[in-house]
Amino acid sequence: MKETCPYCSSENLVKREKIQEAISKLKFEELKVNDESEQLANKYIQAKITPEKYKNDALHIAIAVINNIDVIISWNMSHIVKLKTIVEVNKINKKLEYKEILINTPEEVLE
Asked: pTM for this structure?
């Protein structure tokens, strides 16, 4: 039986090329962890939005939030791009007077 890669179909290769093209046009700025992002990430962990074991996922979201990023684009379906995560993160953000953040996959953004 021939094994195939589920991400290697011609349709997925076209999507990947579109994503790479879109990324190549963006200007990136490195955002750093600071006390505020650590505290916000800890709030997400305390609320059981992300497991403590995956604190970097909580930090990823928190750093974006405190830097007023509009949307996180990720393929991390385990802890970041999930309806529960989006809803619960934005509840905490609203309570702490941060703006809401969108969290999407690259495909959703390119559609």
From this structure: 0.80
